[in-house]
Amino acid sequence: MQRTLSRAGATLLTALLLLTAHVLVAVDRASAADPFTGYLMAHFTGETAIGEQLYFAHSKDGLHWTDLNDGAPVLLSTVGTKGVRDPAIVRSPSGDRYWIIATDLRIASGTSWSDAANRGSTSLVAWESRDLVNWSAPRLINVAGAISGAGDAWAPEAIYDPASGDYVVYWATNATLNGVKKHRIYYVRTRDFVSFTAPQLYIDRPGSQGIIDTQIVESPTSVGGFRYYRASADGQITIEGSNSVLGAWTRIGDLSHMGISNGATGGNVVEGPMWMPFNGRTEWALWLDQFATGRGYMPITSTNLGSTANFRTVSDYSLGTNRKRHGGIMSLTAAEESRVLGKYGVSRPINRLQSFNFPDRFVRHANFDVRIDAGVTPVQDSQFRITPGLADASAVSIQSVNYPGYYLRHINYDFVLAPYDGSAQFAADATFRQVPGLASSSWTSFQSYNHPDHYIRHYAYQLRLDPITTSVARSDATFAVTS
Q1: Model confidence over 348-372: pLDDT tens digits?
Q2: Range 250-263 average pLDDT
Q3: d(Cα 283, Cα 467) in Å, to the nearest integer?
Q4: What is the annotated signal peptide range for this record (predicted)?
Q5: Is 7 exposed, middle or buried (0-12, 13-18, 19+ CB in 10 A)?
């Protein structure tokens, strides 16, 4: 009798647990399944001083994009090589956590492609957020360190695998296997982007053919016959289908019939395939980076990924001002879109800083030096945005309009225009208190954040940071913030 009761109790408990689990899953899915109203693209821009950092762009229709954060980077890597490329953005199934992972690589530092591929970082850079606007500090995750002879870890992606309840993180590593050294795709699994399984081989093309860029998109209703589709740059842009993330994949075809390849058959040579499901309809865009011609991303679209014959070219699209290089696109709910646009979508006014005692002269940058000049050409060299201070949001920093992400900073009391490197020293050097003008209270002076007895002033038309002790110096340190 006791055993019967125990069995009955256990059965009831199991049923309750299953019901609880079902309810929790339903809640999670409901929160993550709110209608999507927009799109967020994470990307880098190229091999410039600040191009290998993380940028955001926004779109309402998935084809016409606007740069966020006034075109400046949103996140900076201060770890590893201090540069990132190929970012992927991931949402948890319950919609309460987000991650960005990216290649730890900065070609602009002088690293050669050979060194990067053969003696590069085996780590990825990762950020975490609960709301898409407040992000953790970057951290390195050494996903490829256990691969024998690994030379790098490039172009990471991640997808949630409902079959196992964790995430599959996959990327390309250059290593020797079976006597052939080339890039292959490897993967690890994780539940928290902190702890990972050992790396396993995922994709290995025949012979000497390497593969670097691959990305998976889910088709929840299995349009075309598969639940998942994979686009890979492996000489062609190859499309494959599968019903499980780590299961067997079927080759559907490639895009050579459209005059598009990854180099094997010429035509428009592209890389960095980037999937984007259109919100509210059964249609996908596959964005392709026209790196060979430098034209940036182009989209092709399909309503049935089960055949490459269904892809169509698109002419009505725009990508904003910044060049978009290999990244990832995530659909946004209305709540997510509101948070993202509230933080990064507010464009600050464009201002000029007019000299008090030389009113025909304005602060400008020239070859990244800073001075006051009359008749500035182009005028953008004298245009700035007054932003919350990099070191203290109650103070201000002065960001260039035509070099987004570059700020006025002092070095040895001289001023330069320099790209923000994420360091505390830079932030302090580029932060100022905006105070009533020292020569006229209706004008403005800028007091140094880290040298509070010093102010921005011009001397022989050059901008300097000096203590102010004379009436001439007070005039030199006074400016009008004009439009």
Answers
A1: 999 999 999 999 999 999 999 999 9
A2: 98
A3: 63
A4: 1-32
A5: exposed
Q: Residue 16: is its pLDDT beyond 50?
A: no
Q: Apex CA 358: angle with CA 357 and CA 359, to 5°?
A: 100
Portion of the chain with pLDDT greater than 70, in percent: 93
Alpha carbon distance 435, 454 (integer Å): 12
Q: DSSP letters along 213-266, please?
A: EEEEEE-TT-TTS-SEEEEEESSSEEEEEESSTTS--EEEEESGGGTEESSSS-
CA separation for the pair 240, 229 (Å, rounded): 6
Beta bridge partners of 157: 170
pLDDT, position 346: 87
Instruction: Specify the amino acid at residue 196.
Output: F
- DSSP collapsed to 3 states, 46-84: CCCCCCCCEEEEEECCCCEEEECHHHCCCECCCCCCCCE
The contacts of residue 17 (CB under 8 Å, 6+ apart) are none
User: What are 275-330's pLDDT values in tens digits?
Assistant: 999 999 999 999 999 999 989 999 999 999 999 999 999 999 999 999 999 999 99
Mean pLDDT of 237-245: 98
Q: Are strands 65-67 and 55-59 parallel, antiparallel or unpaired?
A: antiparallel
Instruction: Kindly list the structural domains of the chain, giving each domain's residue range(s) and its CATH number in brackets, ordered by start.
Output: 30-344 (2.115.10.20), 352-482 (2.80.10.50)
User: Is the pLDDT at 3 greater than 50, yes or no?
Assistant: no
Reply yes or no: is the peptide bond before residue 467 cis, omega within 30 of 0: no
